[in-house]
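Please check both lines for our workbook:

___
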Amino acid sequence: MKRTFTFATLLAAVALLAGACSDSDPAADGAFNDADVGFAQDMIPHHRQAVEMAELAADRSTDPEILSLADEIIAAQDPEIAMMTGWLEQWGEDVPDDMSGMSGMDHGGDMSMPGMMSAKQMSDLVDSTGPEFDRLFLEQMIEHHEGALEMAMSQQSDGEFADAIALAREIEQTQKAEITRMRDLLAS
């Protein structure tokens, strides 16, 4: 009887330890928190504005480096917008309205979001062409990317959803490299 009790106790202890040591990372099972929701809800309009800024380059710049950079920004951020929209829909959370890239920021938009351009800044960019556009585009996109870096780093420290944390890391790496490239273009 004592042997059965000891064996049963041993089995229970092993089962308990196995459960405690398992790979039950909450982020791996799709768990998310308020930081994840806020990241997606803020980064979507942030990305939309970057895409709008980049789309302006086709009609306003003749610099192949600027045009290439703008195309890369659009190619990277459009799919990220779709991905984050999908997360919010899956979580039953509100998806930010498409405010045409935020040029309507003068209509009550959230200017407290890091790196967002004001309506005046967007208007100045829209009204410029050639080298003036190139300079404004680079200066504003650097500021915009720096805001995205702040948001991405916050997500990495506060988020729970693995895919959102991975996206934040990707945004950090990509946009740091783009900032370096844009600073080099400004200096040339």
